[in-house]
């Protein structure tokens, strides 16, 4: 197991949005996210019972492609599970994610973390918890699969992935050393582009390693926001 690269968090106060944040793992993995909303939704996209979520992911260079569309759909699902959307029916929450580094699983984790911080920074959307994500690398050694937290060079591994957690921030748990958390999303792929098959024991091992890294991310977020991190919709408690 390796430790996380140094985490850097900043709030850029971008013009024309309600919240924004920049998140970095080390010097070579950075993402920027902004949040606007709740704003008026187009009739075709509005939902009668809750706010609609729209996520645009932009690469470091060129125009968004298949990968960015996949990530946009994945981030949309993560945000929908993390926010309390029923308080703002027929409105839109628009999230824009800008990659500031070359593609990697660590960048995907940084993008999720930047989204989470931008939502908290905006303060206009109740949340059930804080999203925290880390990358996990895989190296096959015979019949054994070894996992590496936040790998620096993913090309030297057999595969890598990203695991995102939702950390509860209810009034009682926010001050705990280890807040309750649950897995929101996982994605693992081999470097040849194929999917990776993990047995239950290997998936558990990868998840527990990622959880330790995600706790470190959560603590850094907590420190960056101070004690004023909002607790969401009436201190919503999560199932663990």
Sequence stretches where pLDDT stays below 50 over 5 or more residues: 170-175, 227-240
Largest sheet: 5 strands, mixed
Percent in helix: 25-40%
Which sequence of strands runs across the widest sheet?
1-2-3-5-4
The Rg value, from CA coordinates, equals 17 Å
Mean pLDDT value: 88
Q: How far is the N terminus from the C terminus?
A: 25 Å
Order of helices and strands: EEEEHEHEEEEH
How many helical stretches?
3
Based on Cα principal axes, name the global outline: globular
The structural class is alpha+beta
Beta-strand residue fraction: 25-35%
Number of strands: 9
Question: Your description of this structure?
Answer:
The chain is globular. The two termini are 25 Å apart. It has 240 residues and is an alpha+beta fold. Mean pLDDT is 88; it is low at 170-175 and 227-240. The protein has helices at 66-82, 105-122, 200-225, and strands at 7-10, 19-25, 30-40, 52-58, 91-99, 129-141, 144-149, 159-168, 181-190. The strands form two sheets. The protein has a five-stranded mixed β-sheet. A four-stranded antiparallel β-sheet has the order 7-6-8-9, with helices on both faces.
Quick overview of this protein structure:
The chain contains three helices and nine strands; from the N terminus they run E-E-E-E-H-E-H-E-E-E-E-H. It is globular, with a radius of gyration of 17 Å. With 240 residues, it is an alpha+beta fold.
